[in-house]
TrEMBL record:
Keyword Mitochondrion among record annotations: no
Signal peptide: 1-20
Any single Pfam family the record assigns to this protein: PI-PLC_X
A GO BP entry: lipid metabolic process
The organism's place on the tree of life at top rank: Eukaryota
GO molecular function (one): phosphoric diester hydrolase activity
Transmembrane portions of the chain: 365-384
Source species of the chain: Lachnellula hyalina
Protein name, UniProt field: PI-PLC X domain-containing protein
Region Disordered: start-end pairs: 286-308
Keywords on record: Membrane, Signal, Transmembrane, Transmembrane helix
Length: 385
């Protein structure tokens, strides 16, 4: 999920390159969304674990999920959700999604992961460097998500942000507050360790605390109680893997002995299921993508197979799964199978891969070849995740 540099020496001149203009992350493809009137924020202390029956009302695209606990549901996620591989970015090889985050939400994705960097004093969604691929500001990203949540009041959304430049919770919190999305923030009963039983989706919806936010590498700040340190609650499998070598072994946090020990302690499991090429500069593996994202449970390297494998090894289904190019598969079908539901109310998105019509580049006007040719980046092996 994070960017793994097996050996990367980047000179300061990289940051002085003409920066690719923000490609808008997911905003370039967003359709207009009607904004519903927001309700008053309900304190997390009023959120109980009980929930009333909901009949045919769908929560996260299924009535069957309303009365399930948040940590007893598999939430399918878009890895690097702001970094697009489409016409707006010249079909950059460093893009991890064909469709933007609000399209992803409408298609059933309920976990959005993104990398955050500090660029000229502003929190930006940048892929390794803002000179390489800039997905726009965190504020714009959050504003669009809030607009979607305003218009979809029965949906619970999870954010996972990578704190690439070790910024404080206050720095993030100011952006969450300024965009108004903090009004949806949920604060669990424990903020310094795993929680065995999370509220049901219906409880979160009724209380209008429908946004769960995890931030990697951050120190908890009670002034911003809904911004949660990821590894106090979640463990992850390894990232940067090559097809078909996925596994369910815990990779982070390092202090936990095993995946089963983490599950027993109340941690929620996150499966990183996206493959990279094993080349000088590792980029998302497009060649094996149809199999990587397949819901098939009898195929080596498929999403369905790993979902089933982790469920068997952990004696509990994964709470989160991250994939590249969520529409292929489609990936969300694996989550539906693990949750045992038939989804309703989703926007149909093509499962085809998008292809470029002409030219190729790693970013708008900036490519790995150009950077290498200029001697800006010395590389033995770079994993672009």
């Amino acid at each position: 999920m994070l960017f793994s540099f097996k050996l990367l020496a980047a000179s300061a001149s990289l940051l002085s390159l003409s920066q690719a203009s923000p490609q808008g992350g997911f905003f370039s493809q967003s359709s207009a969304v009607a904004v519903a009137s927001s309700t008053a924020k309900v304190s997390a202390s009023t959120v109980s674990l009980a929930a009333a029956a909901t009949g045919t009302t769908a929560c996260n695209n299924s009535p069957d999920l309303c009365n399930r606990n948040y940590n007893n549901i598999t939430h399918m996620g878009a890895h690097d959700s702001a970094f697009l591989r489409d016409s707006s970015t010249g079909f950059t090889e460093s893009g991890n999604q064909y469709y933007n985050a609000t399209v992803a939400l409408s298609a059933g994705i309920r976990l959005l992961q993104a990398q955050v960097h500090l660029n000229d004093g502003v929190l930006e969604l940048c892929h390794t460097s803002c000179a390489l691929l800039d997905g726009g500001s965190l504020a714009t990203f959050l504003t669009a998500i809030k607009t979607w949540m305003d218009a979809n009041p029965n949906e619970v959304v999870t954010l996972l942000l990578v704190n690439s430049d070790d910024q404080t919770a206050a720095t993030f919190g100011s952006v969450f507050n300024s965009t108004g999305i903090s009004s949806y923030g949920y604060t669990p009963s424990s903020t310094d360790g795993p929680v065995a039983t999370w509220p049901t989706l219906q409880t979160l919806i009724t209380a209008n605390t429908r946004l769960v936010t995890f931030i990697a590498s951050i120190t908890y700040d009670s002034s911003y109680p809904s911004l949660l340190p990821e590894f106090s609650f979640v463990f992850e499998t390894a990232y940067g893997q090559t097809f078909p070598d996925f596994n369910c072994t815990i990779d982070r946090p390092t202090g936990l002995a095993s995946s089963t020990a983490a599950i027993s302690a109340g941690y929620m499991g996150l499966v990183n299921h996206f493959a990279d090429t094993n080349t000088l500069i590792s980029t998302p593996d497009i060649t094996n993508l149809p199999t990587t994202n397949s819901p098939a449970t009898n195929t080596s390297g498929s999403l369905g197979t790993e979902g089933q494998q982790c469920t068997s090894e952990w004696a509990k289904k994964p709470t989160f799964i991250l994939v590249d190019y969520f529409n292929v598969g489609p990936a969300v079908e694996t989550a539906d199978n693990l949750n045992g539901i038939t989804a309703v109310g989703r926007t149909s998105v093509s499962t085809a891969e998008l292809t470029q019509s002409s030219g190729a580049g790693i970013g708008k006007g900036v490519s790995w070849a150009v950077l290498l040719g200029m001697g800006v980046v010395a590389v033995v092996n770079i994993v672009v995740l």
